[in-house]
Automatic annotation (TrEMBL):
The gene is truB. Residues 180-238 form the tRNA pseudouridylate synthase B C-terminal domain. It is an enzyme of class 5 (isomerase). One of its GO terms (molecular function) is tRNA pseudouridine(55) synthase activity. This is tRNA pseudouridine synthase B. Belongs to the pseudouridine synthase TruB family. Type 1 subfamily. NCBIfam families: TruB. It catalyses: uridine(55) in tRNA = pseudouridine(55) in tRNA. Residues 24-179 form the Pseudouridine synthase II N-terminal domain. The keyword 4Fe-4S does not apply. HAMAP family: TruB_bact (MF_01080). The active site is at residue 39. Its EC number is 5.4.99.25. It comes from Bhargavaea cecembensis DSE10.
Length: 307
């Protein structure tokens, strides 16, 4: 049975669920989970969790992401990306300096407020927004705070001119950020309608583009019996949490999932990971009801795997 994290390069035209469906057929296993959806028009890094690594999928989903996007200034769409119907268009000649654009990007760095697009999977009253949108309905969407750690201008030159101006940017951001909404916000600050012309996710947490295989490469390596070498250990998904060695006296209690006295590191961190050598055995967090204690959130040790 395969086990670990498969950094997949999701190609355009597929949903994240399509990728999981294909992988289940290629690998002949059911215990597979993806780590957050990518729209069909978006390509890029999609870590796939196999075997016991599926327990860590939510941690990868919560990690920061890096994207490269093309923002088109001059036209907005109902989906905020290139696939949508045009909502507003302004074909007047436009002229922006690099300094103007950098000022706008700086103003959108840090914690910002976004309103999720109608064509998104966010739920309102138990129903996804895209379901309302497909029925021609518009509902009030709750705003959310997201973290933009960095926006870089990748396009060269000091002057950007035209009726529809394209800017290439790199965005390092936290969970829940909509890059297409960010494209619209950039346009608003420049005074024009805008949309996201294209998007590539170049990193998801510690998983990078250079780590990735396409579905066809996965199939080829599986047939040649060398796919295991491409898998990354589940511990990579836990790298953002402090690691604590489980000594011989503590290890049996951890493997049995016991509630324990809270570790001092939990005063500054939401979670810690106990290790038996180089192998993660459990993620612990503060007990939500019992002060001074901690409880397991995820178990990766042998005791649970045998139950």
């Amino acid at each position: 049975m395969l086990e670990g994290i498969l950094p997949l390069w999701k190609e355009k035209g597929m949903t994240s669920h399509d990728c999981v469906f294909r992988l289940r057929k290629i690998l002949g296993m059911k215990r597979i989970g993806h780590t957050g959806t990518l729209d069909p028009d978006v390509e890029g890094v999609l870590p796939i969790c196999l075997g016991r690594a599926t327990k860590a999928a939510e941690y990868v989903t919560d990690m920061g992401k890096t994207y490269e996007a093309v923002v088109s200034i001059g036209r907005s769409t109902e989906t905020e990306d290139a696939s949508g119907v045009t909502v507003e268009q302004n074909l007047a000649p436009k002229r922006f300096t690099a300094a103007q654009i950098l000022d706008v990007l700086q103003s959108l760095t840090g914690e910002i407020t976004q309103i999720p697009p109608m064509y998104s999977a966010v739920k309102v009253n138990g129903k996804r927004l895209y379901e309302y949108a497909r029925q021609g309905q518009s509902v009030e969407r709750p705003s959310r705070k997201v973290l933009i750690r960095e926006i870089s201008l990748l396009s060269g030159g000091q002057l950007f001119e035209g009726t529809e101006v394209e800017l290439r940017i790199r965005v390092v951001c936290g969970k829940g950020t909509y890059i297409r909404t960010l494209a619209v916000q950039i346009g608003e600050k420049l005074g024009y309608p805008a949309h996201m012309a294209s998007l590539v996710r170049t990193a998801s947490g510690p998983f990078r583009a250079e780590d990735c295989l396409t579905l066809s490469e996965v199939e080829q390596q599986r047939d040649r019996g060398i796919l295991e070498a491409a898998l990354l250990p589940v511990e990579r998904a836990l790298s953002e949490f402090p690691s604590v060695p489980a000594d011989d006296g503590l290890l049996p209690k951890i493997l049995n999932g016991q509630v324990l006295s809270a570790h001092p590191l939990l005063s500054a961190h939401p979670r810690i990971v106990f290790y038996d050598g180089s192998r993660a055995v459990a993620v612990y967090r503060r007990h939500p009801e019992k002060n001074g204690l901690m409880k397991p959130e995820k178990m990766f040790g042998m005791a649970e795997d045998k139950r």
